[in-house]
Amino acid sequence: MTKTAITVAYGDGIGPEIMDATLKIMEAAGAQLDIETIEIGEKNYLAGFTSGIKPEAWQSLNSTKVLLKAPITTPSGGGYKSLNVTIRKTLGLYANTRPCVSYYPFVQTKHPVMDMIIVRENEEDTYGGIEHQQTDEVTQCLKLISRPGTEKIVRFAFEYAKAYGRKRVTVMVKDNIMKITDGLFHQVFKEVAKEYPEIETESYIVDIGAARIADTPERFDVVLLPNLYGDIISDIAAQITGSVGLGGSSNIGDNFAMFEAIHGSAPDIAGKGIANPSGLILGAIQMLVYIGQPEVAERIHNAWFKTLEDGIHTGDLYKEDLSKEKVGTKAFAEAVIARLGQRPSTIPAVDYNKESSKRIEIKINETKIAKKELVGVDVFLHFYKDHKNADTLGNGIKNIKSGDFELQLISNRGVKVYPNGNPETFCTDHWSCRFCSLKMDKPGTYADVISITQQLTDAGYDVIKTENLNTFDGKPTFSLGQGQ
To answer: Do 224 and 154 contact (CB within 8 A), yes or no?
Structure first.
């Protein structure tokens, strides 16, 4: 078998220990790998590389296109960006998959029947990290959901379900509140689902969906989520299997992939030789399937199952009435190696068939270009006068207009406060002033936007930003103020 080039990052904290264990298991199992090693993480941060990665590391990644990564430590304090997010977004790793499986009775859990795959969108949502402080009292984080980004992850979830014989895909969103962003995610899900009639579908509002996962995870199969919800729920799901330390994940793009454990670098136990390498082992198993060595992946996975069945457990899993031997990182790896070629007797053995070992390739539809018309503008002001009285602000700017655009309402943190607002509504120093025609049916031009902002500035108001109000094919594509 021709060796496959991969990039390996040993990471921080327990990273080097669990990576050594994982690589030894793969070598013993017959994995054909040509390994390039890079240094990422804490040392790079402290050396002045605020992204946590040096240029030469990118060269390796661009060459091999596959990264097996141990956990890293991000220094506390400002100025440091998440390296995980940086790698995912830079390399277009749009799909994060996290198997969440119970191994009862060998790993204690309140949910003995659980075999769930979390498919998380990996590039968009609030994880763009686009944040600003806008006033003394208000900050913002932009939530970005795109149609092509959503279509890619939705199609990936359905293709994954087909490849691995899964029966149902469940989407979780919050489109009862975020009707445009989460609404788009849900709408694309429903559109794509029609192309996979053989797969059951269902949807949940994410809060009750999370509650159902925590209560009855056995009813779920493949769960699809936008980025932020996926990050939170995948950790919940991993924890209720019995241990986050058993979670491995893959991050898949069109041309690149990264594989890792989902847990952190655990610096408090680094160097003690007691860390559980299972999360990284399971991440490496996903990597082996991805690079076309499913037989090796199957051999390791079943040997790992057999090790758990035989009661060979690291300290985080060890229970006197359940386990037979407490071992450290190195000894656990040796136990897995000793069981290569064996299959579990209680835990169902895995069989990575040819279909599941194929890379999932996604093609998305071209975006339909709609007729776009400017029908108004929201102008955001930093205003702190007269005990934040909305009427003071409203009466001060009510005569500002341009063309058919004139002041229709003012909202504060999304709630209408002028005209005829409720005096009990709590207000901050951050105000959204909506200028448009009364029925929002008369298009204007950007010159109207400029004129309005100039008039506000000339009148002494502090303009923070503007958001254009557009219709697409005649349909309004902006939210109303609460109470409007």
So the answer is: yes
Q: What is the mean pLDDT of residues 421-444?
A: 91
- Rounded Cα distance between 373 and 229, Å, is 33
**E-strand spans in 44-197?**
66-69, 95-101, 115-121, 131-133, 139-141, 168-173
What does the angle CA 316 – CA 67 – CA 54 come to, to the nearest 5 degrees? 105
**Per residue in 207-234, pLDDT tens?**
999 999 999 999 999 999 999 999 999 9
From the list 376, 370, 344, the residue with the least C-alpha distance to 443 is 376
Residue 48 makes CB contacts below 8 A (sequence gap 6+) with none
| Residues ≥6 apart with Cβ < 8 Å to 389 | none
Among 125, 221, 231, 378, the one annotated catalytic? 231
Measured between alpha carbons, how far is 117 from 411 in angstroms, rounded to an integer?
41
Q: What is the pLDDT of residues 41-54, one digit of tens each?
A: 988 888 888 889 98
Rounded to a whole number of angstroms, the distance between the first and last alpha carbons of the chain is 66
Told to judge if 174 belongs to the known catalytic residues of this protein, a careful annotator would answer yes
Distance CA 434, CA 439 (A): 12
Residue 403 φ/ψ region, left for φ over 0, alpha for ψ in the -120 to 50 degree band, beta for the rest: left
Residue 481 three-state SS: coil
pLDDT greater than 60 at residue 355: no
Q: Are 379 and 452 in contact (CB under 8 A)?
A: yes
Q: Which residue type, as a one-letter code, is found at position 457? A: T
3-state secondary structure of 104: coil
Q: What is the mean pLDDT of residues 93-99?
A: 96
pLDDT at 484 over 70: no
Token pair belonging to 320: 């006197």
Are 35 and 3 a contacting pair, CB within 8 Å? no
Told to judge if 207 belongs to the known catalytic residues of this protein, a careful annotator would answer yes
Q: What sign does the dihedral 305-352-240-330 (CA atoms) show?
A: positive
Marked catalytic residue, from 174, 306, 388, 416:
174
Distances (CA, A) of 283 to 25, 151, 186, 264, 300: 13, 25, 29, 14, 12
Nearest Cα residue to 397 out of 409, 387, 385:
409
Please give the Cα distance from 318 to 332 (Å, whole number).
12
pLDDT at 189: 98
Q: Which 3 state secondary structure label does DSSP give 137?
A: coil
Give me Rg for the CA atoms of the chain: 26
The C-alpha angle 187, 190, 196, rounded to 5 degrees, equals 150
Quick one: 136 exposed, middle or buried, by C-beta within 10 A (0-12, 13-18, 19+)?
exposed
Identify the active-site residue in 34, 207, 215, 386.
Answer: 207
Tokens representing 5? 């080039």
